[in-house]
Amino acid sequence: MASEKRLDFFERYLSVWVALCIVIGIGFGKLFPGVVAVLSKLEVSHVNLPIAVLVWLMIYPMMLKIDFSAIAKVGDKPKGLLITLFVNWVVKPFSMAFLGWLFFKQLFIGLIGAEMANQYMAGVIILAAAPCTAMVFVWSYLTDGDPAYTLVQVAINDLIMLVLFAPIVMFLLGVSDIVVPKDVLFMSVFLYIVIPLVAGYLTRRMLIASHGEEWFNTKFLAPLKPVTIIALLATLIIIFAFQGEVITGNWFSIVLIAIPILIQVYFNSSLAYGLAKYFKVPHSIAAPGALIGASNFFELAVAVAISLFGLQSGATLATVVGVLVEVPVMLSVCSFCNRTRHWFSDQKAKENG
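RESULT FIELD:
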């Protein structure tokens, strides 16, 4: 690359901010238990209203970035697209369910107990069933990925989530003997996928038509970027205010949850990258494909886990651990893709995947 590409300040230190949120949230919960109790009661149909507002502030700006007209280019690079769709929707949720069963219900059962094993397993399944959206643009940028391909993949993933997210989660939780209320799951999909997706699409379309794409990107979308991060951090503070007793009483759970998540991330990124190499996909497609296959839409996963199992649940904690490991892990995948660019030197750009 001509110059070193780096994340901005907030994104570069996201794991640090998440760690600080753990400390602040736990401290807040212990110092102001009455406030936390009030927040926990602000629910409608199992949806915590403060969390719902914050999640919307996280997800809506992401949906604004997606240009669904890019789907018209879906046939331009079919091999790269098919590989990442295969990893995202055929391999990823099921491999995570297997790893969750192996670690939580077999290897770690004596440390966490059967109830927490089910909770943690539910959380990692929800996390794996939600493929990455907006953050993958950042990872793709750091590896000189093809922006058009990344855009197409994100748009298609969001549309697929409308149809497959709830059935996959229900199936894998059912196989794992974890009871989940279907109405709450579908309500979560409607609230956190359908509504922001439609709202983002309509807003983008109307504002670009009236003010132009440059104004939309620089004057409307750019100022919203900090809102997503701030809302994420505020959400985590509330979550950890409720999770304080669980964490302080058994902080080692975070380490245990992180182990299968890390294995799953590196397994799926390696699989996508290896398949891209095997099928002679150019590096500019292979790198974002590996990153898309590995990362998660953790904002959605956190929101759904809260709706299904509650703020104080082990499932919610498991999705939050996904946030904690996301940035350093994905940066390591970016670094690996950049260091192995020469593996694809014989695959010319004209090979459109």
